[in-house]
Amino acid sequence: MIGIINYEVRTYRTEDNNWDDQMSVIEYLGKRSNGVLVVYGMLLISGIGVLDYLSGPELGVSLFYLLPISLITWFVGLRVGLSASFVSAFIWLAVAILNRDPQRTVFVPYWNALVRLGFFIVVVFLQDSLKKEQRRARIDPLTRIGNRRHFFQIANSELERSRRYNRPFTVAYMDLDNFKTVNDTLGHKAGDSLLKAVAATIKEHIRSTDTAARLGGDEFALFLPETEAEAARIFFDKLNRQLLEAMQKKNWPVTFSIGVITFTTSPDSVDDMVAGVDALMYSAKTDDKNFIKYELFE
User: Fold this and answer.
1) Which residue, among 40, 125, 33, 117, has the nearest Cα to 79 in the 3D structure?
2) What is the pLDDT of residues 194-207, one digit of tens each?
3) pLDDT digits (tens, 9 = 90+) for 76-113
4) pLDDT tens-digit map of 34-46
5) Which residue has better confidence, 104 or 14?
6) What is the pLDDT of residue 7?
7) Residues of 163-182 as b/e, b for ≥16 C-beta within 10 angstroms?
8) Cβ neighbours of residue 4 closer than 8 Å, sequence gap 6 or more
9) Distance linking the first and last C-alpha atoms of the chain
10) How many whole angstroms separate alpha carbon 126 and alpha carbon 142?
């Protein structure tokens, strides 16, 4: 019967895991706002300009401008990266004019500044293209949410963060009951529309800090950082109702078997984490389908 949810809570205890206290620079920058990153980048560009001036014309340091330009492009975006390129080229030009050899032609610094600007711009576009390709490699083309690779990358990062700060998180594994029936009776186009509807409903109700992914076929996973057991129950109760309503509006005979584990202690690995929540989902599916089963891992 649609809407009936079974709750099953188990508690596991594991030995405390050792974790590394050091945070990588990339992880730190990835958590900063765009405004803060732009300020960091511009300060670094200015510092390189001062170093360029103090080192004199004999020692070239223009290559170092690529560091803040690349960081701004990667974390903030193409347009701001182009702006950083123009600022870097202008600062280099100002330094070159101040340090100019009187015997050199007056137009040489301007020409060199244009060459450097062109080089900076090429690097910015190449880096932006690389970032877009990496983003596409992490997105499921049908549902437009994360794919399996993206989920495992986020889970690895969040697992390390949980170990560092000893914070709880919740992971869910979801399987669509009777999805094959929809494909067989209504066709694959209807099945694709159903998967899109599921993904859209999930995206509508999760937080910006949460991660949703389609792991393959009709299986979805969610990662909810900073989420304790009671908050997870409230959330998945509501999400399940919203999903069932979306299915009923289209007369799709689909329900949801969901396994949810709240971790107060980090598991040994992401593989162990996914295996545990997958097994819990399978248990919900084999019992009677349309169940949510909960466990507490501590």
Assistant:
1) 125
2) 999 999 999 999 99
3) 899 999 999 999 999 999 998 888 766 567 788 888 89
4) 888 899 999 999 9
5) 104
6) 40
7) beeebbbbbbbbbbbbbeeb
8) 290, 291
9) 33
10) 27
The token duo for 56 is: 């004199």
Please give the structure tokens belonging to residue 16: 């405390």
> Of 155, 251, 236, 232, which is closest to residue 201 (Cα–Cα)?
236
Provide the residue count of the chain. Answer: 298
CA angle at 68 for the pair 20 and 70, rounded to the nearest 5° = 85
Please state whether the predicted TM-score (pTM) of the whole model is above 0.90.
no
Neighbour-count burial for 201-228, b at 16+ CB within 10 Å, e otherwise: bbeeebeeebbbbbbeebbbbbbbbbbe
Task: Report the interhelical angle of 34-55 vs 66-75 (nearest 10°).
Answer: 170
Domains in the chain, CATH or no CATH each: 11-19+140-297 (3.30.70.270), 32-137 (no CATH)
Report the C-alpha gap between 10 and 297 in whole angstroms: 8
Does residue 153 contact residue 138 with C-beta atoms inside 8 Å?
yes
